[in-house]
Amino acid sequence: xxxxxxxxxxxxxxxxxxxxxxxxxxxxxxxxxxxxxxxxxxxxxxxxxxxxxxxxxxxxxxxxxxxxxxxxxxxxxxxxxxxxxxxxxxxxxxxxxxxxxxxxxxxxxxxxxxxxxxxxxxxxxxxxxxxxxxxxxxxxxxxxxxxxxxxxxxxxxxxxxxxxxxxxxxxxxxxxxxxxxxxxxxxxxxxxxxxxxxxxxxxxxxxxxxxxxxxxxxxxxxxxxxxxxxxxxxxxxxxxxxxxxxxxxxxxxxxxxxxxxxxxxxxxxxxxxxxxxxxxxxxxxxxxxxxxxxxxxxxxxxxxxxxxxxxxxxxxxxxxxxxxxxxxxxxxxxxxxxxxxxxxxxxxxxxxxxxxxxxxxxxx
Amino acid sequence: xxxxxxxxxxxxxxxxxxxxxxxxxxxxxxxxxxxxxxxxxxxxxxxxxxxxxxxxxxxxxxxxxxxxxxxxxxxxxxxxxxxxxxxxxxxxxxxxxxxxxxxxxxxxxxxxxxxxxxxxxxxxxxxxxxxxxxxxxxxxxxxxxxxxxxxxxxxxxxxxxxxxxxxxxxxxxxxxxxxxxxxxxxxxxxxxxxxxxxxxxxxxxxxxxxxxxxxxxxxxxxxxxxxxxxx
Amino acid sequence: xxxxxxxxxxxxxxxxxxxxxxxxxxxxxxxxxxxxxxxxxxxxxxxxxxxxxxxxxxxxxxxxxxxxxxxxxxxxxxxxxxxxxxxxxxxxxxxxxxxxxxxxxxxxxxxxxxxxxxxxxxxxxxxxxxxxxxxxxxxxxxxxxxxxxxxxxxxxxxxxxxxxxxxxxxxxxxxxxxxxxxxxxxxxxxxxxxxxxxxxxxxxxxxxxxxxxxxxxxxxxxxxxxxxxxxxxxxxxx
Lengths: 364, 231, 238
Prior knowledge:
The complex is a heterotrimer of chains A (364), B (231) and C (238). Chain B is an alpha+beta fold. Helices cover 39% and strands 18% of the residues of chain B.
């Protein structure tokens, strides 16, 4: 992939990959805090487990490819993949789910395509989609946010969470069945399940919505957390605003266009789409991946808008409740084509060069 | 000049003849294969169409030819059953008596579109069984309505409009008696509701259906001819 | 045209020039119906039948047909054989025919078939052409069955399910249950799984080939050294 970052020639301290990745990791903290507050220890366990698997897989494959192991591990890119996947997976998912997803992301989506910088698809999203279509039951059971649990029910503590994630063969079923009372659908899923109702009725009937301020109790805070982290990254100039803003704008436009005032066939309000599911995580941590997105600013606008459009289409008319991962993968596929048409004129050349065009100088 | 011209002409003539001969030979081959397999294919198509019906009423339970013994669904009820074009009800008879009906229905509100159903209703209004014939539900979640993936669809057997009471004809999540699947409520709910609609249809139209069926049933005493070949 | 030995023809079709793994031809049906062994074997056998028959027929008439009408005649033969196969499958394995559906008729567009007719059968004797068709078809069918087996085992937890559709009621208890049904990696039986499995098979074949080549190169080098040493002792230098 091309790495034409359109940056100012006067930037003071260019960040290396390691520095960039560290900033990204730090920026996930507000979202992670919101996830942990609302859904318990699950996300932290996911991230710890995914990180361990990612680093081990990365080391093993880099060693297999006869490259310097420590050099590649130090760039933190595997860690970022692991953290993003861990954030996206449902809390308290069984350990093997995390292991399979992470292994797929690192070994197949990243290294089989040539490793860091050569992967056409975002590895974390590949891992996520593989799990989603392979194990839809485990991947769509989320916990009920802390504030909505019934009286006397609480989210499992750290020790109990570990027992749920790593069940021992002889473990009493009581531990996992303790979860039964606290699992529930996500706001997007809940919304999709009520096909015959007016939006107003759904909001009045479902505690997930009636207790929420913007778009579903708990979930709005998770999204606000990722939004805050994303804005900080933007301020730090880790990426440009084009792709995330284009994505969010397209999503808002699509949902406003089809909202029709909340009839029973409505696809949900712009607020619902902005602040539920993986919207903000996607906008600021996935869509901005420099390797798999378009290279120029114009290209990123198109790339981001395409993702926003597809998210709406797949969420509302598709087979699965959330769609960020599918939309990102589809546009990853389109990114080289977008680059082909949007690469800016190289300084000193007259015509807009196409990325794949043969050099014109060769012709006499 | 003239020699090449005639050469060309001869070549065209020869090639046309050649093509014609091959067309003839291949069509002969095709025709003979067709003639030799025609009866078997008709038989296989019939068996295949029948096997869907036989799942609801096994060969031993009846003695008429389910495929041909049909009555049309009145247009006014097509909408109740979710059908967009005219369809037939298959009549099930044993020893000259009507013991049940098999009718098609379409549940339009699945997670991703239509779910086609075949519903068997006994003459007394209880369900002989339900099968899903076509759907596009999510693999691993909603597709458990298929019998080969999950036995859920068998939970309808023997139920009727009063059993359970009408307000419990939905999934447990909404206060009914039918299990939903983990992670999938919409699909089973769509199926349950459409089966209920079919039972409602039968409670309204069943008597007329029974009269109509026994009316022309007398003429239809030629027992199923391929009865003995059922697996 | 020097004729190949049967050994070479077999090696070509099954391995060196395998239609699915090397020529990457006919992938559309390959990917679409390989979700279990029974479907894969059904389509593999049908393709093999058509390929053998068309190669034989094309070779038999190769001296009678002029250049100008060669392709139309080949196409007519292939289309006829495909339609006959379709009719036969409809008559004897109707349920399998329903599952494979359009992909039986699509055998006619499988590039392997016209490709072999043109590249091999139109230049070789009837017997070796038929053998070539059989081997190419078998190479295709083998890959199909391997993909079907991998996808079925990973995705469904079974092997040889539904074989009765192909072999009659006798085969209804051939199914091997590897682990709990319905708990597999669903990805494997969905379309992306087909692409991933084919990719891995191609990679595996290339890996085997290159390791064989390396070993061969090593032994050749060893031989050369021996030869050159002997050359030196006799004192003849080229």
